[in-house]
Design a protein that fits this description.
The protein has about 190 residues and is mainly beta. The chain is built from three helices and 13 strands. The strands form three sheets. It has a six-stranded mixed sheet with strand order 2-3-6-7-5-4, with helices on one face. The protein has a five-stranded mixed sheet with strand order 8-11-12-1-13. Strands 9-10 form a two-stranded antiparallel sheet. The longest helix is centred in the middle third of the chain and has 8 residues, at about 65-75.
Length: about 190
């Protein structure tokens, strides 16, 4: 089961900008669906590249995806994932993207085999250097409900192999993202 899950990360590129909120966002920190009446407002985060290249995936750190990637993922019917329209101010242009609000969390970090540091009271992880999933916990959740979720213990977006295959089957392939196998993912993955 460890080999079936991947962590979504941004592609390493100095030209692909990070995104940041251009409005209040507290409702998106809760593990529940959100109600919005208009697209959320995002902007390029610092440092803004001299010539930013907008791609299929940007990090907020929540995933922000292009319409074509959203359509591919939305077709997978992922419980606990809400696609929220997002207008990204990029220079003089406003571009439509989709915020993946992954409100489904599963507490499935194997605390005995993972490598992490937490606060003294043990409620917040300070770092997660190696993730090992607790397969017993995952087996209790039907596969259709755990094909895409966020790790409850930390802000890690996990995707089942079937979802990864669907996303990577786009032609041309999506740009701006990497799916790192959980077995290879760690604190240094952002730099590799």
């Amino acid at each position: 089961m460890q080999n079936d899950y991947f962590v979504l990360m941004r592609e390493r590129s100095q030209q692909h900008p990070l995104l940041t909120w251009d409005q209040e966002y507290l409702q998106f920190l809760k593990p529940s669906p959100v109600r919005v009446s208009a697209p959320v407002r995002l902007k390029l985060g610092e440092p803004v590249p001299p010539r930013p290249v907008m791609v299929d995936h940007h990090s907020l750190p929540s995933p922000v995806v292009s319409t074509r990637l959203k359509e591919a993922l939305d077709a997978a019917e992922l419980p606990g994932v809400q696609f929220v329209p997002a207008d990204v101010q990029a220079g003089d242009a406003v571009l439509r993207y989709w915020l993946m609000h992954m409100w489904r969390t599963i507490p499935c970090m194997d605390r005995q085999r993972s490598v992490f540091e937490e606060t003294e009271v043990g409620h917040v992880l300070l770092s997660l250097d190696k993730l090992v999933l607790d397969e017993a916990v995952l087996q209790e959740v039907p596969l259709e409900e755990r094909r895409a979720f966020m790790l409850e213990e930390d802000t890690v977006h996990l995707f089942h192999r079937t979802v990864v295959d669907r996303a990577l089957s786009l032609s041309p392939p999506p740009v701006g993202l990497r799916f790192i196998p959980v077995t290879e993912w760690g604190a240094s993955s952002a730099f590799r």
